[in-house]
Structure formats: structure tokens, C-alpha cells
Amino acid sequence: MIKVSNISRFARTSGTCLMIALYFLFAPSTLAAAPTYQSAAPVVGMAATVSGRGYWLVAADGGVFTFGDAQFYGSAGNLKLNAPVVGMLATRSGGGYWLVAKDGGVFAYGDARAFGSMGGKQLNQPMVGMAATPSGGGYWLVAADGGIFAFGDAQFYGSMGGKQLNKPMVGIAATPSGKGYWLVAADGGIFAFGDATFKGSAGNLKLNAPIVGMIAVLSGSGYWLVAADGGVFAYGDAKFIESLPGRGTKLEAPIVALAPTADGYWLLAADGGVFSLGKAEFYGRAVVATLPPTGAPQSPGERLAAKNRVISNQGIDFLKDFEKYEEKAYNDNGKRGFCTVGYGHLLQPKHSCTAADYARQYTKSELESLFAADTEVSAKFIRSRFGEVPLTQAEFDALASFFFNLGANCIGKETICRDLDTKSYSAVPGHLLMYVYSDGKKLCGLHLRRLSEAQMFAKGTYERIYDQKRCFINPY
């Protein structure tokens, strides 16, 4: 479990995610740009902000993407997960969120608190959903067999664990009092416990696609069910707006989640597509990169389109070794530098450290999350800017280190960008060694880092070169 405090940046971070496309929403007198972020894994969950003017998306690898007024509080995108993430849940304040993994692992960010998990414990069936108590002081996890696991101030009111089900469970929703919950199965069957009241189900309907989740209305007097084909079923005082089959929408990937807002709701597809129904506004979407299948045969020297690459664990370790790690804030180039913390993370907006910056206490988890976000910025820049350029894993990792260090853009780095655009691979190592200056001065430390990156790009080795005798010598 991870606890990360409020981190209000997503522009340089894990994305954060680089804007790679624009969609435009037209209002009577406004023109707004809606971003598209690239995800390395299928998108599995969604949560709306309190205002209804934004939302979060989460991918199976734990990556979190923010849209509209949603704030980034951290992600599990660069963690080594034991099992994929299957969903997310925002806190009532909107100041944080939980991620839940298939093995029952729980990851808490912002003002969401972790009270325990089933990670590392024996499960009969995988976890499929999560619901929180009104206080935010606890939560329930539900498994595919209907088993319920209560943590914090969440009380156990019953389960379907050990009972015969026609179809597996796919979701859970809590009542406003926190004294009950509903479970929903893939066939639309509803099971009510505690003070949750049964308002209807799709259990006896002939569904065109399985149910994939449910959301309760704030009053607790109704709920929506959503199916994989975008069908929406409203019960009690939940208001039916419209559904995708009714629109005639053809999906390229199944719907995986629904998030409501005033007089509307969003539907999320596994490919990152977001569909706005009713008065729900579109704030952006994710696009899932076409990554090679896990375990697919791939030689170290095999080149794949950059858009299909992510930073390897070796690349992450390489970056960590070269970035100065500090738990306390410091100015990166002395008194006139910018305030920095962790693995070279610049506090935003850029400024010299203040007394408050020096006094702030950071946890290891916070700094790891910031680093994960920052590395993803450079990786996503490479995927979007050089998407069709074939790169080996080592070439991609070397470039990720370079752009992490000097900024995820081509400004001042036009030579390298031109080499990549023209696929002039042999020119890149030598040209990397041009970028060894700071404030007009050649720095040995920068040269050794560039030399290490050049060697990685040219030879596929991840050696860290620290020998100062090799300073200012360009073997390429």
C-alpha cells in the first residue's frame, strides 16, 4: 500500500502525460481544447470530480490520467505491480483516490487513506471492485465470487461468498449512510445488504452484453448499471439519459465504467475512449499504445516503433543512479537555482527554495511517485513525437534519460530530434555529447552522463560511467 500526499501537478509528470492530440468542444462563445493522453495499458476505471467538471482515468498498470479540474495526486504507473489494477474510487472531498488491484492490493493517494488490503493473501476469486464509507475512514472490497472484505470503519453486512452465482460479481456501491451496500453480477442481478434497498435489476433481462459495473445515486434511492456495449440501466431515482446502443455508437473496445454528473454521465471504454451522455461535458480521453504482448520474443537489438515502447526497469535504475536523490528540498544549481526534491524533481512553478520548501517533510512514497510521473513525461514525449521511428529498448531508454534531464521537447535539442526524424541512428551517440553545458560551462558530470547514454544507445549496455579520466573525450 502506498500513501501519497496532494501533488498538484500533472503537466510535467507521469504524464504529466504529454498532450498528443486535441479534440475541440464548441460552446456558444468558447473554444476549449480537450487533451488525449497515451496509456501503456488498457484503461480500467473512472471517477468524476466533485464539481462534475472533470474526471480521472486509471489504467491496468496503475497509471492515472487527469482531465478537466481533476488534480493528479499520484499513481502506481511505474511500480512493479503483483497484479493489474481493476478500478479506482475518488474520496468524497475529491482530494484523493484509491486504486484497487486484482489481487486485493489497495493504493491510496491524496487525502485517501489506506486501512488494509488483501494483497499477498489467498483469494478464491480476484477482486473486481471497491466502495468507501461516507467518512472516508474505511472501504469494502468485493471479489468475483461475491466475497466481501471490510477495512477501517467499514462494517460487514453480508456477502455472496460461498453461495452459488449464475454469473460472477462485477461491482459494488455503498449506501449514503455507510450501513449497507449493493453488489451487481455480470448478468445484471442485484444483491442488497444492510440498509441497501432493492430497486430493481437486469437479472431477468436478455442482455446483449454483460454488465460491467454499477454506481449509486447520492440519495441512495437508486443506481445505474452499465453494460460492456454501453447499455445503461437506471433504477429507483437514478435518471436514465441515454445509452450507446440507442445512439447507434459502434465501439472499438468494451465499456468498462460509468461516472455520473449532474444531468448526465460518462462511459469509459477499455481503449481510453470517453463518451459524454446528457449534459456531461467531454474533457479528454486516453489512447492505449499498441504494446508488444508480454513475453513476446524480442531480441535486445530489435527495433519497434517508439509509440510501442515504455521505459524498462533497467532504464529506470539507470535514471535513478544519475539523478541526485534528496528527501529535503534544495536549489539545483546553488542559491540561484530552482527548488528541487527527490530524484531531480523541480517544484512547480519554478522558483528558488523558500523557508516553507525547506521545512516540508516528504515521504519516500511521495518522492517515488513524483519520479514515476516525471519519467513518464519523457517517455510519452518520445512516443508521441517520434511515434513511428523504430527504436530498440536501449535506444528508447537512453533517449528517456536524455529528455528527462534536459526537458521533454526539441527546443535546443534540434540536432537529436533531426537525427531521429531521419533515422540517422549512427549520428545520435556523437550528437548526445554536444549537450554537456550548463550556464555556458562544460561540466564533467554532464559529459559522463551523456557518454553513458551514448554507449547505451550505440551498444545496448546500461553501464554508468563515472571515471573522470573520460571527461570531454568523444569516442563517437
Structure, described:
The protein contains 8 helices and 29 strands. The protein has 476 residues and is an alpha+beta fold. It has 2 domains: 286 residues, Methylamine Dehydrogenase, Chain H; 166 residues, Lysozyme, CATH 1.10.530. It has a 4-stranded mixed beta sheet with strand order 1-9-8-7. The chain has a 3-stranded mixed beta sheet with strand order 2-3-22. A 3-stranded antiparallel beta sheet has the order 4-5-6, with no helix packed on it. Strand 13 and strand 14 form a beta hairpin. Helix 2 runs parallel beside helix 5 and helix 4 crosses helix 5.
- Mean pLDDT rating: 87
How does the overall form come out from the CA principal axes?
A: elongated
- CATH C-level name of the largest domain: Mainly Beta
Structural class: alpha+beta
What percent strand? 25-35%
Spatial strand sequence of the major β-sheet? 1-9-8-7
What count of helical segments does DSSP give?
8
Q: What is the tally of beta strands?
A: 29
Poorly predicted regions are: 1-33, 291-299
**Terminal Cα separation, in Å?**
46 Å
Task: Please bin the fraction of helical residues.
Answer: 10-25%
CATH superfamily of the largest domain: YVTN repeat-like/Quinoprotein amine dehydrogenase
What's the story with the biggest beta sheet? 4 strands, mixed
Instruction: Using the CA coordinates, give the radius of gyration.
Output: 24 Å
Oligomer: single chain
- Examine the coordinates and then state which fold CATH places here, giving the name of the CATH topology of the largest domain: Methylamine Dehydrogenase, Chain H
How many distinct domains?
A: 2
Proper CATH architecture of the largest domain: 7 Propeller
